[in-house]
Design brief:
By secondary structure, this protein is an all-beta fold. The chain contains no helices and 27 strands. The structure holds magnesium ion.
Length: about 300
């Protein structure tokens, strides 16, 4: 069997014919938010319904990182290497300090509670960009069922603490990532449930003062959703999809797929040379080594 499907010959040099898709761990209910800590040699990710965060290391496998995790979802690192986490349960974005203490960075916009921050990236200027769909307050499965006070926006939290809604025309914004030079921001809309709802990635131009323009369709994901994606050093997008991981060119063309046996939620680059994809997929954590390197941001 092949782990790949090639739609454009360029994709052949991105993958290694003898590198398998391998399951590293299992037993989760819905895993998301993988982030690689190269300095600590481990991967941290969230198992949202089980209200915990896990740590996987090549030597000792799986251990608990944080439990309860306030129904944590997306994770990334800031430019000082600190863990930034989206929490459904507290409806906030937090930072884990180097001494292990946890700081709430934001939980409100214009005096109203956020919905349930989902995914997060940090720009080189230290600004924290995150999406705020309602998934974590829509039921008691991935958080606490609660009243929605705000529409589902994309936000930018300035290093000075001020917050701005930078995109306000989403149904359910979800995964997001910058292009390597941070002049473009990709944001997924994963809609609600139903055929008429969006399942695509949009692309925005980012101005130096952190404002967005454009926002046109970048790629329609099929099957499934672009719940999470990351960018390699040449600007290709590696996105979750219903049948695995899809590789998209910087102009939005699908050039290849990696098949994963479970529905994929998120992924990140990691390993010695950021040449390994770590893939969270429903109940399992998977990896595959690529002939590609991920961006140095997480
Ligand atoms: Mg997500």
């Amino acid at each position: 069997m092949s782990f790949f499907e090639v739609f454009d010959p360029a994709f052949r040099r991105f993958v290694l014919g003898n590198a398998p898709v391998k399951q590293l761990a299992s037993g989760f209910d819905w895993a998301e938010g993988p982030v690689w800590f190269g300095d600590a040699g481990c991967l941290i990710f969230s198992d949202i319904p089980n209200n915990r965060m896990l740590r996987w290391t090549p030597g000792s496998g799986l251990t608990t990182f944080r439990s309860p995790s306030n129904y944590a979802n997306g994770n990334t690192r800031d430019r000082q290497g600190r863990l930034i986490t989206c929490e459904h349960g507290t409806r906030s974005v937090t930072r884990t300090e180097l001494d292990g203490s946890i700081t709430t960075l934001v939980d409100r916009f214009e005096g109203k509670r956020l919905n349930s921050p989902n995914d997060v990236v940090v720009a080189c200027d230290g600004a924290i960009w995150f999406t705020d769909p309602h998934y974590g307050i829509a039921s008691d499965y991935e958080g606490y069922k609660s009243e929605q006070e705000l529409p589902c926006h994309v936000y930018r939290l300035d290093p000075n603490g001020s917050i701005r809604a930078v995109a306000t025309d989403f149904n359910c914004p979800n995964g997001l990532a910058f292009s390597p030079d941070e002049t473009r921001l990709y944001v997924a809309d994963t809609g609600r449930v139903g055929m008429a709802d969006p399942s695509h990635i949009r692309v925005f131009d980012v101005s130096p003062d952190g404002r967005l323009s454009g926002g046109g369709l970048f790629h329609e994901i099929s099957p499934g959703h672009a719940d999470g994606f990351r960018v390699d050093t040449e600007g290709h997008l590696w996105s979750s999809a219903g049948d695995g991981v899809h590789c998209l060119t910087p102009d939005g063309r699908l050039i290849g797929k990696i098949f994963v046996p479970e529905l994929v939620s998120n992924l990140c680059f990691g390993g010695r040379a950021r040449h390994q994809l770590f893939i969270t997929a429903t109940t399992g954590l998977y990896t595959i080594t690529l002939n590609r390197n991920g961006m140095a941001y997480f």
